[in-house]
Amino acid sequence: MKKKLLAGVMTFASSIAAFAQTQTAAVPASAQTAKYIGAAIAVSTAVLAGGFAVAKIGAAAMGAMAEKPELSGKALPYVGLAEGICLWGFLVALLIILL
Fold first, then answer.
1. Cβ–Cβ under 8 Å, residues 65 and 72
2. Would you give the DSSP letter of residue 24?
3. Which of 25, 39, 63, 99 is deepest in the core (most CB within 10 A)?
4. Which domains are delineated in the chain?
């Protein structure tokens, strides 16, 4: 668990550093940096939440399908809904950066 958390923090820090290297002349550097940090927080939070959700829902779905195979059609869409959390985080980050 600690290794995964450390890897997530390192990925978060490297994404902030990568985003902070580009700047535009129209917006002050501090506002531009805050925008990229906000986008990085949006994506990282959504990806972590989506990962935890897929882990819990996927394990429960596999357990249910092991007992009753006919539940596969009802259980798998919930895994897709949990993956959608990551897409929403990406869209929020994209809106933060572009607007």
1. yes
2. -
3. 39
4. 30-98 (1.20.20.10)
